[in-house]
Amino acid sequence: MPHVAQNKSGRRSAVPEAIAQTPGYDLSMRCRKRIEQGFGWAKSIGSIRQVMVRGLKKVDQLFVLNMAAYNLVRMRSLGRVLLPVAG
Q1: In the chain, how many domains are there?
Q2: Collapsing DSSP states into helix, strand and coil, what is residue 36?
């Protein structure tokens, strides 16, 4: 099943309540949030919102560079959580 978020704004949702209550759906939403955070970071802090290069190859390289930078930022913050600094 695709990662579809349940609509909770008062309208009819495409995701039935029976599916939204399952543990698999909950896991799917947590994975989706983690994936979307990288794209949000690349658009707000990285240079993906409005690229300054032309051509698919250059845009692809820019995207890979942004995602590598995001992974380095995540590794730094994960390192603080997993390996506290002795001092």
Answers
A1: 1
A2: helix
Domain-located, residue 87: no
For CA atoms 28, 67, 63, 51, give the dihedral sign: positive
Does pTM surpass 0.90? no
Summarised one tens digit per residue, pLDDT across range 64-87 is 999 999 999 988 887 777 666 665
CA distances, 7 to each of 12, 16, 52, 64 (Å)? 7, 10, 35, 32
| Domain span holding position 63 | 17-82
Question: Is 11 part of a structural domain of the chain?
Answer: no
Q: Residue 29 and residue 20: Cα distance in Å, rounded?
A: 10
